[in-house]
Each structure stands twice: as C-alpha cells, then as structure tokens.
## 1
Amino acid sequence: MLKKMRVGAATALFVCENLFFIGVGGGLGVFEKVQLVPALLAANIAALILIAVVTLVFGRLYCSTLCPLGVFQDLVIGAARVFAKKRFAIAPAHTTLRYVLLALVGLAFACGIAFVPALVDPYSLYGRIATHLLQPAAFALSNAAAWIADRCGHPLIFKQEIFVRSLLASSVAFVSLVGVGFLSAGWGRLYCNTVCPVGSLLAVLGHRPLFRIAIDGDRCVGCGLCERACKAACIDAQARTVDVGRCVACFDCLGSCRKGAIRYTSRVARIVSSDEASGTAQPNGTGRVGRRGFVTGAAVSAAAAAAAAASKDGRPLQAPESPVSPPGSGGGGRLLTRCTACNLCVAACEGGVLKPALLEYGLGGMMMPRLDFSRGFCGWDCNACGTVCPNGAILPLALEEKRKTKIGRAVYVRAHCVLVTDGVQTCGNCAEHCPTKALTLVEEKDKKKYPRVDENLCIGCGACEYHCPSKPFAIRVVGLE
Amino acid sequence: MNEHGMTRRRTLAFLTAGAAGLGGSLYGLSRAGVIRFLDDDAKNDDPVQLQRLPYAPEPGRTLSRLGFGGIRLPILNRKDTEIDYELGQKLVDYGVRHGMNYFDTGWVYHHGQGEVFYGNVLKKYPRESFMLADKMPTWLVHSLDDAKRFFEEQLKRCQVGYFDNYLLHSVHTLKEFKDVYETMGVLDYLNDQKKKGRIRHLGFSFHGDVPLMQYLLDHYEWAFALIMLNRLDWDDENEKDPKGYRAGTLYRMLTAKRIPVFVMEPLRGGILAHLNGKARAVLKAAEPKRSVASWGMRFVASLPNVQTVLSGMNRLDQVVDNVRTFAAKFEPMQTPERAAFDRAIGEFQKYPIVPCTACRYCMPCPYGVHIPETFAWYNAFAGEGRLPADSGPNDSQALRRVFLVSYNNAIPPSARASHCISCSKCKVACPQWTFRIPVEMEKIERFVAHVRARYEAKKSGTATC
C-alpha cells in the first residue's frame, strides 16, 4: 500500500516535472521550485521547511518522489529487475567519501565554481537530460504530428526547430544519463548515497526520522528477501539492521517480506525495544562514522568557505568579453552564485536565444544560460526564463518591467555592414526590428542610411543582431559587465 | 495546401479515367511509379500524337504545339542542380514518342545543368529530328566577351553544332536592351553566328512593356518571339485601362508583323492550374471531366498565331494532361467555353495574389530568404480569400492560428520575410515588373506581424477572461 502510494506520487510528480521541461503545462513549474538545491539558492523558506519536516518525519521520501533523478533511477532499476533479474545486497556505506564530496561541492560553490555543484545536483543533472535529450525527442514527435496535420490540410501544430543548443551541455546530459543509468542498473541508489549532495544533506537530516524501516527480530527468519529488494543497499538481513541514513523510503522491502517482519514504523512505538540499538540506525557502526564523516566534511567546507571569502575574486577564471545574461539575472556575477544549470530556462525560451554557456562566464559558469543571437532574439512579449527559474537566479519580471531591463548593449561595426561589404544601397534591417527604437538610420554623404545606436534606449534584446544580414554580424549585442 | 491536394487527386482521377487512350495506367505518383508508367507507355505501338503546325521561318518544318520546357526538370535531393537523369531521359523519350520536337532551355536553367541535360539526353536522336532553343542571359552579359563565352559554352553544353532557335533572354527594359545588344554589339555578334549557320533563327524572350515591343519590332527583323501569354495577362482589343503585361496587345503586335508567337508561362507558373475553389467550381460545372490546367492551355493554343506552347515537364500528371490537351484532334476554344473560362477567371481575380510564377530567377537570395516559397504560401491564403482580417468573416482566431502555423511550418525561421533587407538584387533578376519582390516581402512581413500580434492579444485576452 505504502509502496503503491509512493509509486503513484512519484509517477505523477515525474510526469509533471518532465512535461514542464518539454514545455507543456503552464502551472506545473511548482514542482521544480520545491527541489532542495533550487529552494536553498532561492531562499525559498516554505519549501525548505516542508522538505525538512517531511524528511524528519518520514525519512528521505524526497529522494523517492520529488527528485526527478531519483525517480529516473527507479525506472532504470525497475527495468533491471524485470529484464535482468537484478537483485541487490548490503554494501558498505562510503560515508567519509560521501561527506568529503559534499564538502568539495560546497567548497566549489563557495569559490564561484558553480559548474561543480551544477554537475552533480540531481535536479539540475536531470534538468539537462530533460532539456537536451527529452525535449528534442518530444519536439520530433510533435513535428511528426505537425507534418501529418499539414499534409491533411489542417496546419494546427507549430513545428519546432530541433538543434544542438550546446555541444557541451548535450554531451554532459548524455554522459550523465548513461553514467547514472549504469550506476543504478548495477548498484541501485549508489549515486544518491555517495555522490549526490542532496542525498547527503537529507541523510544527515533523516538518519533518525520519526517513521523508518525497521526489522522485527522476533519475526525475521533471516531469509534475506528484503536485502535483495533494497536498491539503496542499506538492509543487512543477517545482522537484521537497516542503515536508515541511506534508506530512500521506497518501501520496496515491505512487500518482499513473507513474515511481516519488516515494517515502516514509528520510533515512538518501539516495537522491538530490545533490538533498537542494533536494529535500526547503526549497522556496523555506520551511524557514528556518518556523524564523524559529516563533521569532517563540515569542517573542511567551513575552512574552504573562509578561504574563498578571503580571496576577493569570486570568479577567478573568467573570459575576457562579458556574455549577455538573461533579463532578471542581474548580470553574470549574480547568476553564477544562484544558477545550477538545470537549463529549464533554456528549454522554456521561446525565442530560442538562451543557450548553455561554454566558457563565456569562465570555467565556473559552464552550461549556465547566456543569450546567443544566431538563431533568435529575446522576445519583446516573453518573460518565460524568469518565470520558470526555480533558483531565483533569473528573477521573475513582469512583462512591462522586463521590457525596460537592460541586459546588453548593441555595438555597430561598420566595417562588417552589408552597406559597406556587399555594396547594397539599402538595408536598415536592424533598425526595422528594434522594439525600443534605439536604432535609427542616418543618411550620410554616400546617400546610404547607416544605423546609430542610442545606448539609453537599447535594452540588448538582440533583435538587431538576429536580423543583421552581415556575416560576421555588423551589429552585435555585448554584455554590460 | 488542401486545394493543392484536391487538384492533384482530381487530376489523378481524371487521368485514370482517360488513361486507356494513352495505353497505360498510373501507378501513383512516386518516382518508381512514374518510371513504370513511362516504361509501359514505351511499349505502346500507337501513342497519341501531338498536333503539329508548320513553322513559317523554315518552310517544310512542322513544330509540335507543345514544347518541352527546360526550366523545371525533375530533380534529385531537392537540389536544383541535381537533375534526375533517369527520369528526365524517360520523360524526353515520352515526349518524342508522342510527337514532341521542340526543346527549350536557357543558360540559367538549373544553374547551367539544364543545357547539359539536353546535351546528354538528346544526342541519341538525329539532330534534324528536333528543334533546340537556347537563350543569351541578357542580365549576366557585361561585355561582348561575356556573350561570346556564353554562346560557345552553350553549344558545348548542349553538344550541338547549331541552335534552331536562339533567343535574347528576358528582354525587359529598353535601357538594358540598348546597353547589351546595341552598345556592346551582342546583337551583331549573334547575327554573325546566324550567318555562320550556328543559329538558324533569331528571336527574343520578352518580359517588357508595349513601347519596348514597339521598339524591337520597328528596329529589327525577328524570326519569332517568345512571350509570356496566358489568360491572366491577356487583354482584349478594346479593353479599357488594361493592367499587367497586356499580353493580348503584344500578341496582336507580333501577329500584325507575321511573327510566330511561342508561349511561356501559359499557366502563369501553375496559378492557372489551381486558381481557387470558386473558380474551379465554375470550370467543373462546365466540363466535369477536364483538368483546370487544360482550360488555360486551350485558351492560349486557340490563338491562331501561337506556334508552340512551352510547359514545365517535371510532373507526370501535368505532362500526360498536356499531351492530351494538345493532341492531334485539338479544336480551338468556342464561345461558350471561353465564357465559362472568363467567369472562372472573374471569380479568381476577386482575391488578388502576388503574381509570382516561381521561375526562381531570384534565387538564391543572398540573404537566405525563400522568395517563391513565401509567395506560394501567402498566395494559398490570399487566393482563396482566407487572409485573416480584423473584421468580417475572416476575423477568426482559428484562421489566424492556421495562418501562423502554416507560415511557421512552411518557411524556416532564417528564410522568412523578416530577413529581406530590400537589397533589390532580386529585382534585377525577376522578369515580372507588375510587382516588386522587396515591396511584397515587406508587406507580407508587416501583415504576419500584425496577425501575430492580434492572435497573441486575443489569446491572452481569452485566457484572462
């Protein structure tokens, strides 16, 4: 029953999260906003309290329902169980490694190398899979439908352009997909219990929850069925113990026991008072090691944060020309302290102008959104990126406000302009498409009209660059910093 | 798009019905099906023969009423330069079998590959058995040497020692004519070639206006002329305030000089094969079994001084239909038929379209705009009276959506009207002077933007309600 509820909730949440990434379903973004790392970065207190309370009461239910990467892994594990008859066994916890990794992630973030947390944060990791692999697949399907509709004489579906937005982000998404899929098919939730920073944080919070899985020593015959069902590899059937810190509350074990010896039960109930000490929290003393590991990790990360604060430059490795960052991001500097490169904004961008950065923001800002005007420009009537961003990295702006937000400035390079290079008499395509009339055409001695940029009016939307016929562009939008 | 499918289906149905006379049946329109059809037709001992008329400049010679147009040959991989030789050869063979003996090409057709194609596929026939026409690309000639180079290259490409008909291609302004043919001396050069026997007959293809025609006829002797002639460009003798090309006037001027008229664009780039729903209904009511295209074809072929009608030969249904229309038993159009046709044209002209014939001389656009495709898309709405409007029956959100979706799906983003910078390079290449590509592009861009704004406004309006 519990398992069915968990599966039901997980399925519903997973579908909603994916639909939102694909671009279907307006109000579904709320599930992206209650992801742990985004909520932390956005200082979303309500979401944090909710996650904390749920974890303190029910254990790491988060990892089995809300986390898209967790549910994705459960799908892989389910497939491995069905097709490869996959069974699990108790494995030692890599507790020290786990907290050192957590500390390193925290350290990297504190040093402004947001790329590292972005790489391992489960929501962002899955977000890139959804943006760069799932969305194109969904587009291909909808384009096929559009083609059929067109052929039937009822053009009702807009065809979408499918292209590789960023080789880096697409490759990272693909490698993550294969890597995490491979890990989960072979070792269950090893990623969640070793690498994942969210898993580590929740393990600390939920290592002694109110409700947790426990084995009734009187009923248990030590058959090991529960151990083999446990994808978190946290049940030791011989010792009859459960490492609750690693348990993701999937309830798969409950149905596996034929004696009714394993239960999801309240700590207060103390069904097996005699076995309490060895029965739940501390198999092979992992609980203690866990605490020790966490303390070590916390110390390392505190030291690192102090070191980072001491070195004044938060972004030591930055490219020389500043990129254009999305409206509401407050520029690249602020973006890098909030963004985890889930690329949801990239998926949602209607103009197709947001792309994951390569090195434009420096090494630390890889895969974070920047504006690239080769295939589109920032739409006058669009504020999607800010509305969808769960991290608060791109703040939601009302359309009126967004239209006034300056994200870059247009620079005109006459030497590249078709009026000079192609010998044409008229162009002015940049001015024609400028929504703020920041570009005006001024006739010069040769009777040709050349564009002039009014810096005060230009918001850097890039309509001019996108519509510029020159190669290389004669009018370019550059970042403000 | 719907209309397109309907015509094709109807044409197919009609063809299948009339196919017995052609000794074959259609297997559908896939390439393999077309080839099977042509192969089957080749086994027929008694193919339908096209009507032939004597050619006055060359006594004893007869020309088929239908000529093989070389501008829209079957292509591979959607690339204009990759001609489908297997299919093309079979189409030419088909034409020859049915009595076709006039083949027309030009320097620019398929970016030069059109001439090469004829050279390769016609060499198996005796040179005297067919007439080959080629053209001097007027707008590409910047010096006499250019012209010489073009002419020599053309003979090589076509693998022939002489051209039967040679034309000054697309004469459309007096200034250009004088610059190229008089000042540069290209006309003298071509007359020399005529004396040498490398050109049998010299003529011109015409895209200009009445005064220019007058100039050409007053100052020079011409063996023949190729003009754009079709019902849409036709003007009657006493017509008040005629607009457009005034093809009727041009035809009458040539006829008065006893110059045989060759016809291009008999269907105005296919417009007359589609018309619109209402016009088709009129034609169907008058002659249920005949194709829409056959009306336009019969109209031009019924003019007594029309020698040969050129038609693009890339679609089998069209070719078969044309052969049927121009068969030996051809009888000119009579008054009731003409009246029905005029009624249909009246219905069609209620909804103005961009009169692009999709000749593609404008392509490739240096800035990537898909010019003929954009016009074709626009015309599909304009011609049927289905352009979204701010009031009246076309003030419909559903129609706006269909309009925007079909634009989005028909033209890739980088090839849309918004990328036109009015550089006017297309203006030089476009043989049509009744409209200007950049002007129409700008109109279309504005119109689409307007429809989109209204669509979005209504959409968010209904969302909040």
Note: The beta strands of chain B are 52-54, 62-64, 66-69, 102-104, 131-137, 163-171, 199-206, 224-228, 261-264, 306-312.
## 2
Amino acid sequence: MAVIEPYEGVEAVYRADAERLWRAIYAFAGDAEIASDAVAEAFAQVLNRGAAVRDPAAWTWRTAFRISAGALKARGAEGPVVAAPAEHLDRYGDPDLLAALRLLPDAQRAAVILFYYADLPIRDIAARLGSNSLAVRANLSRGRGRLRQLLGGHDG
Amino acid sequence: MDDLRQRFATLDRVPAPDLWNEIERRLEGFGSTTPAGRLVAVQPEWRGARGERSRRSSTPFRSRRQIALLVAAALIATLLVGGAFLVGSGLVRLTSVVPPSPEAPHATSPGPSPVVGSPSPVIAATATPLNAFPARPGMFDQLRDWRPVSDTVGWVATSSAVYRTTDRGVTWSDVRPQGSATMSATAFLDADTTYVASGGSPATIEATHDGGASWVPVNLEVGATSGGPVFSFQTPLHGFATFFDPDGANQRAVYGTVDGGVTWSGPKDGSVPTIAGGGEKLSDPLGGFLWQRAGKFDNQPFDNRFFL
C-alpha cells in the first residue's frame, strides 16, 4: 500500500485557500460540480507532484482554472446548453453579480474574479491564468466595463 | 471601483464544500508510479484572449533545480516509508492523518452539542479498516435500513448501531456515532457520507463524511413534530430533514443544511401544500419534495421558499 505523505506546503495552501479557490471557480464556471471537480483535481495533482511544484498556491489556482475552463469547453461542445436556472447557491451571494459574470467571455470573467475576489495583483493573475500582464489588463478593463454595464440597473 | 469589490465580497457567503476526502480519493487513484495522467486530458490548455505563449508552464520538469527537488522528494518519501514500517510494523494507514482544522481548536464537549459542530477534514480510508470483523450471528436482527453504495462498500443500520463494509460484506466495522441511541432515520448517500437521526425532542442528527470515522452531531429542538425525520439530500452536503407530527396533523418542521450537517437552519414550517385524504408521506426529492398521497405521487414540490 502506497503511503502518501501530504506535502506540508500543499496542506497549508488547502487550509488557507481551498474555500476561496472553490468560490472563485464557482463564480467562474457557474457550476458547483465543476468547481468541486476542478479544485479537488488540482489539489490531488499538486499533492501528487510533491516538491516538483515550486509555488503550490499559484500552481493549484492555475490548474483549477484550467480544468474548469476545459470542463466548460467540453460542456459547450456537447451542444447548446439549456439556459440553466440560477444555481441555488447563488442566493447566498449576489445572484445579480453571478448572473452577470456568466455573460462575460471566459478570459474576462477569470481576470475580473481574480482581481476583485481573489484580490491579486495583475502580475499574479497573469501567472495564474498562464497569460501575460498585457492581456490580463485588457481583459480586466473590458470585463469591468461590461460588468458595470450589466449591473448598472441594479446599482442605483 | 469599490462597489465591484464589495459585490464580489458577497461571494464569501456561498458555502464551499470540504473536498479533502475527494482529494485523498483521487490521490489514491493515481497510484504511486504515474504522476498525473489527467492533466494531459485537459489540453488544450486555456489561454487568455490574446493567444499568448505560455509554453514554459506546460513543461513542468525542465529545470535542473526541479529535477533535483524531485529526487530529494523521492528520497524523503523512501525514508518516510521505511520509518513508518519500522515504527508501525506495517500498519500505517492514511486515516491517522488528520490535518488540523483551519478554525478554532476542536470543541470536545461530550454533552449535547450546540447547533454548530466543528468540521474537520479527515482523510477517509477505502481499504478494509483494521477493526473490521466478520458478521456475527444476530448482528443484523434489528435491521432498520441498508444500502450498498458501490461494488464493495455498503452500510447497514440496526436499531442501535451502524455497520459499514468495504469488501462486499466479508467483514464489517461498527461505525455507530457516539450520541445516537435510536436510528429513527438514516441516509446512506455514498461510501463516505451518511446521516443518522435519533427521534425525540431534541432530535439529534449526526453526519459523517469519512465513512463513519468521525461524526458531527447537532441537536435540534423539534418540539411536538417529532416524527421522522424524512431525509432528502441533493448532494452529500446539501439536503433537508423534515420532522412531522406522528399523529398526522398538518404540522411539519423542515431543517436544511448546506454544509454537510455541520449547521442546520430552520425550522421552517410555512406553506406546506394542504392535501386532503390520508396516507400522506414526505418522500424523496426531485428538486424539492414530492408529496406522496395514497400510493400516488402528487407532484407538489415545496416551493423553494424555505431554504433554497
């Protein structure tokens, strides 16, 4: 029987970041199942790689976003998604915000979530999305504008 | 700028599940030799809008430093395994690894616990537990409920105990929770997750998410409506317990949890649809509750006003 010693750094990341990451992915994917799958898979992968991963936090976030984006793409390829009713979990947060987020393109949505919710500087966002600062800045600015526009009616 | 930040802050209120068991399960699935097969399947990797190049990140084991670290990790792992065998004479199990809870230290009051338990991510073992034993004569005489949840794992509740097998019933473990005297209701959801309730007032609902290794008990003051509860779960973390008046009056108390039974909100006993005729019973959910009457399903879901 293989004895796997959880890599301490990862455990710390799990305690500090797992819930936040899950919510970020939930906001990104709009689907609790995808979020749970992506986050669990990312942590399992980072544990499996052990010391080969230099920055477990960044690696886990990037991987979780990548997996959920892949899942979204796969679901999109399956056929037109029936306009899903807002997830019941939305009600705990800000349903308008989450609904508006779903209307943004993937890259913009990811940038906006990482900036406003995860509170990361542009450079880190780029690292976690496997992107670069310029692209993130552009996506962030576009996403922010569109989000304001979408939420405008409710903001008063 | 701040308005958006504030709106995003509300995301913190969305209950996030504890995924440690699931992570552990997947880790075991990888085995000890192949590092990470699934990530490859996620290709093509997701990129930002401008199609920029991020080749570096997709080749994880390139630099000398990383290879050196990998070798060091392998060495450490070997040492650990060897040490574990020396110390534990081969009986090292993952169940003993309990990462400290992120919140305050675990409350250890044995008496009636407050409505809020303390979640602790325990790593579940899917291997045969050490204390498993073959079924004894009469063990299942007071059978209340049973459910096989996978090819190998199954749960059985008798009037006073909960048993779990991980090897098709060859051996069993007594995984009964501490507090429950009677099993007035059980919900065996999957290999790891089970909810058990004892009736009475207060009623106790206990939940495990690690195959019975640990339970989170919560006491609920249900008053006169102490029949049941009827459990109905949409996910292992999210579901309802409905207490009803055993004498058939139209009184119900519905409790809901979204965090796997650590906290229950309620009771809500508002606008339950009134249906004439006897034989009513609350049954399993399809997005809400189904209302069963005289042998036929009267498809009247609770109107989501309660907890959703």
Note: Chain B touches chain A through 65 residues (CB under 8 Å).
